[in-house]
Amino acid sequence: MPDSSQKRTALALVDAFNRMDVPAIIAFRDPACLRHFYPTAMAQLPQDTRSYAQSLTSLHAIFRNFSLTIDELIEDSSNPTRPRICMWLSAKADTAAGKYVNEYVWLLDFNETGEKIVRTKEFSDNLMARDFFPKLREAMGKERERKAAEKAQAIGM
Question: What is the Cα–Cα distance from 41 to 111, expressed in whole angstroms?
Fold first, then answer.
C-alpha cells in the first residue's frame, strides 16, 4: 500500500528540517497553522507561521549538523476530513555549548488533502531545554565577545 499524502508530507517535513531549509519547512504549513507547545506548564502561547519562521531562522544560525530521526510514526486516518500523524523524534546538533540532544513528540493535523499542516502540537524534553539553553546563551555571549575582540584588534593594527 503506498504512503498517504500526509505521511509523505510528514517525511518531507523531517527531510526539510534535516537540511534546515526554513522556506521548505514553512511551505508545508497552512498559512493559518498554529504551533502549540506542551506540556502546558511551559506556559507558551501558540506560535503563528511568521513567528515560527523567525524562530527557525534564529535556530539555523545556532545549530550545526542538525538532524531529526523518526523513532516512531503513527498515522490516524479515522477521520478522513482531518488526517493526523504523530511522530516521536530524536534531535541532535552541534552548538557553541556542545552537543544538543533532545526528544520531541509532534502531533500534526493536516488538511483534507494531507498536503498542508493545519495545526501542530509539540511536546519536548523540558528538562533538557531548561539545562541546555542557559549554557548555550553563555557560550554564544563568549563567542560574540571573542569576535568583537578579534575585530577590535584587527582595526587597531
Answer: 29
Contact yes or no for 6/75 (Cβ under 8 A): yes
C-alpha cell recorded at residue 17: 528540517
User: Tens digit of pLDDT for each residue in 69-97?
Assistant: 999 999 998 888 899 999 999 999 998 88
Enumerate residues 6+ apart whose C-beta is below 8 A from 16.
24, 25, 28
Strands (E), the chain: 29-38, 64-76, 84-95, 98-110, 117-124
Q: How far is CA 17 from the centre of its chain?
A: 7
Distance of alpha carbon 28 from alpha carbon 53, whole angstroms: 12
Question: What are the beta bridge partners of residue 85?
Answer: 75, 108
Dist CA 88 CA 104 (whole Å): 6
pLDDT tens figures, 64-74: 999 999 999 99
Side chain identity at 49, as an amino acid letter? T
Question: For residue 21, how many C-alpha atoms fall within 13 Å in the half-sphere facing its CB?
Answer: 11
pLDDT tens-digit series, residues 106-137: 999 999 999 999 999 999 887 777 777 778 77
